[in-house]
């Protein structure tokens, strides 16, 4: 190999390996069929994409780019979080600035929009609007966002000045379209002239299936019907699922020669594959206690969305969680369902709010074991849920302790002399080891000065889950003595029918076990009661676990050898075993 000065250079083995890896990586980039250079993307737009760390397109983007740029109507289907927004955004921007729509679109002050994008919620609308803003500035385009819950006037001013791209929710766009430019019966809006759809080049329905679920059927059809000459408009419909209404919209408003790109097809798994799907049993009364712990354990400091069934639930939870805000229709945008979703499409969309653009995420669904439909969601969405118990207080304490340790590491060494004498005196006077004293200090910093028990079945605090085993199958819960029936909760048989799990109030545990003395010579048909497994002993007993079975398919139960049960006095924490 020759350098610029003509001298030969002998590479070391490490240098040769590095050069080979660099060459291989360059070759891979050149061979990437989805690389930006493989598509008709202008240099300015390509540079903006690279600044955002985008050097190649996702499958849905690559498969639809040329179809859209060439002017065809399109139905695009992909799982949530797979890049559908950029799939329509890139070819539209390219068409407006360098493609077929460039010469025919209107420019100048007061110009009507060339693009209309409809989304089901104001949050999604503002997100897509923000994405457009990243690119349209460098391309000389203007974008505005229309949504409810905020004043009309600023939005009207933006439209009056002229916008190339309008993004918004069906309700607000219908209002300005109906009472503004279209001059219908309401006199108050006749003179507004706020939006003009006569020069439209593109109309996009993003998350079309969600618009159906949220009741925007009439609004969407009204807006699409406002375009007088639909033959001059390119219509793009993107959706994660294809219910009948979406198919109806496609047949009614898209051209007959429309193209379809479906990345889901008949695959059983319809939810995002980048999301870890977890279900967790939890009674309604325990949810406000358990949600902060779930966030603490699973969020890793990232952002969290909690879906609730009602507006009141959202507001109540927002008041209980530090740093949380409620988002619902009764709250103004400027300030703006712990229950499982009612249908499969809703779960697919909600779980898809995380794990987007190739990143991973976690979706935790709380359910009431007595009235849950999560098995239907699992069956129809193709999701294989992980069954977890609620984070036990010891788990939360460990996470909090790790965070407290990080805080200690951040403290300046200059403060050590101030506290060193007190620390040395504490070590000398205490019977505890330095490590044990530090553990107590971390517990205090983390706010965990005591560890409470929590049910594995319902997540209720101050309840423990007890395992009852019998030598023969239990055909009915009536084997339990009548005087103890009222003191237990959530009785469920194990899958093999030879045991049961149930909750007992923490203060009643010793008395309950005493009521069922376990004797070493107990017969095969006698009941044997094990208390709860202590979290510190989980590591010790994990090798002895005989099996992990489910209780009616909705909760975990651990079966242990008899001798292990005889030697243990307390049980908790099956998650992770």
UniProtKB/TrEMBL annotation:
<comment type="similarity">
    <text>Belongs to the DEAD box helicase family.</text>
</comment>
<feature type="region of interest" description="Disordered">
    <location>
        <begin position="1"/>
        <end position="35"/>
    </location>
</feature>
<keyword id="KW-0547">Nucleotide-binding</keyword>
<dbReference type="InterPro" id="IPR027417">
    <property type="entry name" value="P-loop_NTPase"/>
</dbReference>
<dbReference type="InterPro" id="IPR011545">
    <property type="entry name" value="DEAD/DEAH_box_helicase_dom"/>
</dbReference>
<dbReference type="GO" id="GO:0005524">
    <property type="term" value="F:ATP binding"/>
</dbReference>
<keyword id="KW-0347">Helicase</keyword>
<dbReference type="InterPro" id="IPR044742">
    <property type="entry name" value="DEAD/DEAH_RhlB"/>
</dbReference>
<feature type="compositionally biased region" description="Basic and acidic residues">
    <location>
        <begin position="1"/>
        <end position="11"/>
    </location>
</feature>
<keyword id="KW-0067">ATP-binding</keyword>
<dbReference type="GO" id="GO:0003723">
    <property type="term" value="F:RNA binding"/>
</dbReference>
<dbReference type="InterPro" id="IPR050547">
    <property type="entry name" value="DEAD_box_RNA_helicases"/>
</dbReference>
<dbReference type="InterPro" id="IPR059027">
    <property type="entry name" value="DD_DDX21-DDX50"/>
</dbReference>
<keyword id="KW-0378">Hydrolase</keyword>
<dbReference type="Pfam" id="PF08152">
    <property type="entry name" value="GUCT"/>
</dbReference>
<dbReference type="GO" id="GO:0003724">
    <property type="term" value="F:RNA helicase activity"/>
</dbReference>
<dbReference type="Pfam" id="PF00270">
    <property type="entry name" value="DEAD"/>
</dbReference>
<dbReference type="Pfam" id="PF26142">
    <property type="entry name" value="DD_DDX21-DDX50"/>
</dbReference>
<keyword id="KW-0694">RNA-binding</keyword>
<protein>
    <recommendedName>
        <fullName>RNA helicase</fullName>
        <ecNumber>3.6.4.13</ecNumber>
    </recommendedName>
</protein>
<feature type="domain" description="Helicase ATP-binding">
    <location>
        <begin position="65"/>
        <end position="260"/>
    </location>
</feature>
<dbReference type="InterPro" id="IPR035979">
    <property type="entry name" value="RBD_domain_sf"/>
</dbReference>
<dbReference type="GO" id="GO:0016787">
    <property type="term" value="F:hydrolase activity"/>
</dbReference>
<dbReference type="InterPro" id="IPR000629">
    <property type="entry name" value="RNA-helicase_DEAD-box_CS"/>
</dbReference>
<dbReference type="InterPro" id="IPR012562">
    <property type="entry name" value="GUCT"/>
</dbReference>
<dbReference type="InterPro" id="IPR014001">
    <property type="entry name" value="Helicase_ATP-bd"/>
</dbReference>
């Amino acid at each position: 190999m020759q350098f610029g000065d003509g001298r030969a250079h002998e590479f070391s083995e490490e240098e040769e390996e590095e050069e080979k890896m660099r060459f291989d990586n360059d070759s891979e980039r050149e061979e990437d069929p989805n690389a930006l250079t493989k598509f008709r993307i202008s240099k300015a737009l390509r540079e903006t994409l690279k600044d955002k760390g985008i050097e190649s397109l996702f499958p849905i983007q690559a498969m639809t780019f040329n179809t859209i740029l060439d002017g065809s109507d399109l139905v695009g289907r992909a799982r949530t979080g797979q890049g559908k927004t950029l799939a329509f955004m890139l070819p539209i921007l390219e068409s407006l600035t360098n493609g077929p729509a460039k010469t025919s679109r209107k420019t100048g002050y007061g110009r009507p929009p060339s693009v209309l994008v409809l989304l089901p919620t104001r949050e999604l609308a503002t997100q897509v609007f923000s994405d457009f803003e990243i690119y349209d500035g460098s391309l000389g385009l203007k974008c505005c966002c229309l949504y409810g819950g905020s004043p009309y006037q600023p939005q009207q001013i933006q439209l009056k000045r002229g916008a190339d791209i309008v993004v918004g929710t069906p309700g607000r766009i219908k209002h300005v379209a109906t009472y503004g430019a279209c001059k219908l019966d309401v006199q108050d809006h006749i003179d507004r002239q706020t939006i003009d759809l006569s020069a439209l080049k593109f109309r996009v329905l993003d998350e079309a299936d969600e618009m159906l679920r949220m009741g925007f059927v009439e609004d969407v059809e009204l807006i699409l019907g406002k375009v007088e000459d639909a033959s001059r408009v390119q219509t793009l419909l993107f959706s994660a699922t294809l219910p009948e209404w979406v198919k109806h919209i496609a047949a009614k408003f898209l051209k007959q020669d429309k193209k379809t790109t479906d990345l889901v097809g008949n695959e059983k798994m319809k939810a995002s594959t980048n999301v870890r799907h977890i279900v967790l049993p939890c009674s309604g009364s325990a949810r406000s206690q358990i949600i902060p712990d779930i966030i603490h354990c699973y969020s890793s400091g990232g952002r969290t969305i909690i879906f609730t069934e009602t507006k009141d639930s959202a507001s109540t939870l927002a008041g209980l969680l530090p740093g949380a805000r409620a988002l619902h229709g009764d709250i103004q945008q400027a300030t703006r369902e712990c229950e499982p979703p009612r249908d499969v499409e809703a779960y697919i969309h909600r779980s898809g709010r995380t794990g987007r653009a190739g990143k991973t995420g976690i979706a935790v669904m709380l359910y009431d074991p007595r009235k849950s439909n999560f098995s239907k969601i699992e069956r129809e969405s193709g999701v294989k849920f992980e069954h977890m118990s609620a984070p036990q207080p010891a788990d939360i304490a460990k996470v909090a302790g790790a965070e407290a340790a990080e805080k200690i590491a951040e403290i300046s060494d200059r403060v050590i002399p101030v506290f060193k004498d007190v620390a040395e005196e504490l070590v000398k006077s205490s019977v505890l080891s330095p490590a044990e004293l530090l553990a107590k200090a971390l517990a205090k910093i983390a706010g965990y000065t005591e560890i409470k028990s929590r049910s594995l079945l319902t997540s209720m605090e101050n309840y423990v889950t007890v395992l009852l085993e019998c030598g023969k199958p239990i055909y009915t819960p009536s084997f339990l003595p009548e005087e103890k029936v009222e003191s237990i909760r959530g009785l469920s048989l194990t899958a093999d029918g030879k045991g049961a799990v149930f909750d007992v109030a923490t203060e009643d545990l010793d008395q309950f076990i005493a009521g069922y003395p376990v004797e070493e010579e107990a017969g095969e048909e006698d009941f044997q009661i094990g208390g709860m497994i202590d979290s510190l002993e989980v590591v010790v007993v994990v090798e002895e676990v005989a099996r992990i079975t489910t209780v009616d398919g909705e909760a975990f139960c651990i079966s242990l050898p008899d001798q292990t049960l005889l030697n243990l006095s307390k049980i908790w924490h099956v998650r992770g075993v």
